[in-house]
Amino acid sequence: MSRPLRVALLGSRGIPANYGGYETLMEEVATRLAAGAWSSTASPTSAEGSTVDAERFTDVERLTDAELEVTVYCRAHHTPKALRDYRGVRLVVLPTLRTKFFDTPVHTFLSCLHAALRGRFDAALVVNSANAVFVPILRLGGIPTALHVDGIEKKRAKWGPFGRAVYALSERLACVVPSVLVTDAEVIRDHYRRRYGADSWMITYGVDPVPPSETGVLERLGLEPRRYFLYVSRFEPENNPHRVVEAYREVGGDLPLVMVGSAPYAGDFIEAFKRRADARVLFPGGIYGDGYRELLSGALAYIHATEVGGTHPALVEAMGYGNCIVVNDTPENVEVAGEVGFPFQAPEPASLAAVLDRIRENPGLARQRGDAAARRAQERFSWPSVTARYAELLTTMATG
């Protein structure tokens, strides 16, 4: 083509990332796409599961390496309005309504209108299945669009009957309104295939385990390397922070449990389980950047207690940084962790307590499992190979 391919990423809070998985996905993929920085040895799979033809994939790499112009749509309360460019990525900052139920839909609606009427994009990626209803705006604007659906959102406990109904409808729409459906785990891909007969591109989450700069976060929290347990997630019911805190009351010893996270619109829920926590449990709030990576690098073990979703970003990141992994025994979590993880049952606090006591008493075993987790992450999850998949997807849509 005589001009760069123009691609848009919509549906998240935007970048720079300082909130959750979608925002990190946007930053990692968008900046690499803009810079042409991904693995030349990646071997992604097609929607049918077979390896992409090597010659075709090389052509995609060459084209996108030289000719991709990337735009990310951002929310005004997340990204400074004056910020128009971030690490080579163009930013469009639009307003929204900062409420639990309207934040995402209002911003995505405005973003899709802007992209369709003024963007002149060749392809788009929209994240969050709840945004399926807005994808036709982009399609009517002549923009081929992929929709990333993450997990089975209608199962999340934080949504009431109306919210679950919206996500149930969005799940059905996701099979018909986008040009391409994107899932991030085989379990989720199989769900859409079995329930709706809908195929998808399966593209996982990634990790880039860069050694963190010294931030002093361990000293500020009174922690010693390899002498604390770490939990990282939004404090929402389906992520089971309350059950982790409850289980830790049964764990022996004096090692701290660091509960990193928060959640908007969940103040009563969070305050209730904080009151029940014992003195060894720390609640430092959200920690990002090198401070977060420093915590990951120094933990004895990482606790992942989610029960809804696909490939969870925090789990992949913890594995990449060589953590011993303790996972709630769901098909999605087991798919990611494989045999390197210690499983437990979130509704049974005693099962988690028993695993943590075993790790506490066998730090050598924890290091062995952590090393195995790092190897698995390097083999299966990396941002360069994930970006290569998105490069192929967006380029394929843009060029017909």
Strand residue content: 15-25%
Mean pLDDT: 88
How does the major sheet shape up? 8 strands, mixed
CA radius of gyration is 21 Å
Portion of residues within helices: 40-55%
Number of helices: 15
Structural class: alpha/beta
Gap from first CA to last CA: 13 Å
Q: How are helices and strands ordered from N to C?
A: EHHEEEHEHEHEHEHEHEHEHEHEHEHHH
Q: How many strands?
A: 14
Q: If strands are numbered along the chain, what order do they take across the biggest sheet?
A: 3-4-2-1-5-6-7-8
The rough form would be described as globular
* Uncertain ranges: 40-66
Question: Secondary-structure map with pairings?
Answer:
Elements (H helix, E strand, L loop, with lengths): L4 E6 L10 H15 L18 H13 L1 E8 L9 E2 L2 E6 L8 H17 L3 E5 L7 H6 L4 E4 L12 H13 L6 E4 L2 H11 L4 E2 L14 H5 L7 E4 L8 H8 L8 E4 L6 H10 L4 E5 L3 H10 L2 E4 L8 H8 L4 E4 L2 H7 L4 E3 L4 H13 L1 H18 L2 H16 L2
Key features?
six-stranded parallel β-sheet; alpha/beta; eight-stranded mixed β-sheet; 15 helices; single chain; 400 residues; globular
Describe what this molecule looks like in 3D:
This protein is α/β, with parallel strands linked by helices and 400 residues long. It contains 15 helices and 14 strands. An 8-stranded mixed sheet has the order 3-4-2-1-5-6-7-8, with helices on both faces. Strands 11-10-9-12-13-14 form a 6-stranded parallel sheet, with helices on both faces. It is globular, with a radius of gyration of 21 Å.
